[in-house]
Inverse folding.
């Protein structure tokens, strides 16, 4: 918590496929979904973040070892091209998350290779894109990710995501949404994996202007700040198998690793 | 709980490599580690289980779709040949666990592909094989997996496993062990993934006769019984993405999946 | 799980105040709310349960040491007279729950002394009694408490309960409800305290015929079965401070408790 | 995390009984246990904290409404006089914790009225005071409370605390200790209750100079920083029952609380 003075280095990742294929999406997100997400983070964390973007079509999807090594928080949006993401890059991102890099997974990113790899489950859910009204309710008003947003957040039109959401029990359940159709969904969940923090937030879709919604942008910015590793955790060695125990051999002789 | 009358169909899997390579291990486990584990389950759950074994060298490692479809609980032991297990078989086992098949992971199985896949973390830990005494303490005396064993279970000689054990927080922490060297380890952990229950139990090693220890055998049998799916869960459809929401469209018209 | 053959001894507790004061409630629940709850448990667990009832106006509220000592599962309904329940009885019930007796807390029981004492929080929530439709969604289809009921359970008219529900994070979140007004609520939660299991289930109210709803009755019966202690846990000594450690003194001499 | 610039207002509470009765304790803690705890917090959080102390013998035990209303974090040490703490003061402290005040409970404070009230369980454990060596192992190296201390922390002489520790499952298990006798204990646990954070840390006793141990002092200071409410949470209304739901009546008309 002493490290809030420092700048959080954020990489906003987007597959950037719908924007190129569909005029309507391009009109909705002229800078791409990554552009809208990045703008929301910057406007809410002025002077606290250094934000860059990366997309699928770039070499190594823009997620080289160098980029990840200098990233404190990665945000992930994908939908139409999950299978186009190289397994090698997925393993690299997983290694960095387990080593302490924060990860914010957005909406349809629930089905991304990286989220499914970190969860170990199908991450399947129910869905229906028919302009439902979504209400995002805060279960933990004291949680930093819920700071400064009303309960509920009212999203006039949005894709419905419904339970059963096949994930491990989250470490913290911060938001639960209801939809016009009556469905419910765990829309804001935190997970710890290795040294890394992960936050999943479901609102947002290529077919609705949700990433322009000020409360949604505020939550994403809060999540970026919350998953950012502490200064002290940023340079932690990656966890690895340790050839000997710490303390002493059974005979009492020292055997520090 | 109405299904305890039925027989639990158990498949005990073992890589069966040390037993073939090392005379000492063969002498310790003449029927193989799978033979000792199977015998312990049968002696503790007489008339309640139907136990078969499967090993790495068999076609598809003995874990065909047919075998898994008729398995209620799979136990897993591996160490020297984790990388020899085919990814296709790992995916198949994962799918069955998420669909409701119980899984009991033993000792060095912490580094198996299937456990790492289900956990999403490195599953690394500290270790030292120098004949430490292990004490296995019960944290949840009411838990079915701890039924009928003393606290602590005293294992005169065992490999040390120590924290940090890089796993997601377990749903339940049933056992914690201490070792002669002073180390501690979360030696009995439960996890739910999809419709499946998973129990990890660390005591047991090819270099020590731990699978002949009556309390260790009792815990493994308890775990088999506890991860076994309820009758009602055994035929659950595998979780999958649902094309529409359940209840109604935003306009109120019915749209059941 | 070997103890399902035995009979589960259930005590259904009800303050039984609204039924005496209000004609409409008496008409809705001619046998009292306790009568309706008891009937639902008996019809769903024929031959597996021995059900008796107890009410506020009885000596010691019908919850003497003898009654509790011969109770496997206690269900609790209260609303208008929480403060009339004697602290001595609350302490007695708490002691039995921590010793292994199961507890099922229903609806407005969220504000009972016993639930607040076991939770340590205010257990406050939002509410509105205006004939909302409640949909009870299952998050854990494999959970024994969700066995045999549709998702969602549709309750045509019910009091709205909404978040923030001020409870500790439940060990398992089995059901989440939505209401016509758009609110959401964690309507089915499990907790472990000491050796005892607790299940909170929110549907049900004196002003609506919810305890006649077959799915609600099924869930309550499932919960009774699920919180019932295993045979092996029924006679566990109450947890207590232990005057010495288990294993050995620092000098190595034995010092078993 | 934006609030680390502000000063954290800490009140260190101590029953201060052993120090007055026993020469040896007075010699060990000439400023009282509260003096040693306060000094450890101040030396580790220079310029970040404003620390005062309060003790049992003061009016209202030094914990008036005014004192608590201007306290961000309360630390609690008690042992010989738990029953001397007025229930009215316990209720007051509970209300402030649920409203957002942080609480750090130390060692024998496990049996304090306030901790037992917040946990809802007996909080019993095993103990033996025979100069055991305690090793405090970190399970979560990335956790802010574990920042800057070795794993294990080596405490040459300490009272043994052993499982079963009768508490609800902690939200996070940060430290587990082993003792010379072979016992294990969950020595560092976090809990969220209402808007408040609670951290229990077991090392420390009147009969050993543990509160002079630099690593123990560091952990206590880390815990104070970690349970301190965010600026945004400090003025949160105390949670309370809400007379109406938030959103709309079943007929769609507005009915904001």
């Amino acid at each position: 918590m002493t490290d809030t003075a420092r700048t959080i280095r954020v990489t906003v990742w987007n597959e950037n496929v719908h924007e190129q294929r569909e005029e309507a999406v391009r009109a909705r997100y002229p800078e791409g979904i990554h552009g809208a997400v990045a703008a929301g983070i910057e406007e809410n964390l002025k002077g606290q973040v250094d934000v860059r973007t990366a997309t699928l079509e770039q070499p190594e999807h823009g997620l080289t070892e160098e980029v990840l090594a200098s990233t404190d928080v990665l945000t992930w949006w994908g939908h139409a091209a999950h299978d186009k993401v190289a397994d090698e890059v997925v393993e690299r991102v997983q290694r960095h998350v387990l080593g302490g890099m924060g990860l914010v997974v957005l909406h349809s990113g629930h089905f991304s290779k990286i989220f499914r790899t970190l969860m170990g489950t199908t991450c399947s859910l129910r869905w229906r894109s028919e302009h439902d009204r979504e209400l995002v309710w805060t279960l933990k008003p004291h949680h930093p990710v819920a700071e400064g947003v009303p309960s509920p957040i009212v999203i006039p039109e949005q894709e419905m995501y419904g339970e059963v959401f096949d994930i491990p029990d989250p470490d913290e359940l911060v938001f639960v949404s209801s939809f016009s159709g009556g469905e419910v969904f765990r829309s804001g969940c935190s997970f710890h994996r290795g040294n890394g923090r992960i936050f999943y937030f479901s609102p947002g879709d290529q077919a609705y202007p949700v990433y322009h919604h000020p409360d949604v942008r505020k939550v994403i910015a809060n999540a970026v700040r919350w998953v950012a590793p502490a200064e002290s955790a940023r340079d932690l060695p990656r966890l690895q198998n340790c050839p000997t125990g710490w303390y002493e051999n059974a005979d009492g002789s020292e055997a520090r690793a």
Observations:
- The interface with chain D takes residues 133, 135, 137-141, 151-152, 162-165, 169, 172-173, 176-179, 182-184, 186 of chain B (CB under 8 Å).
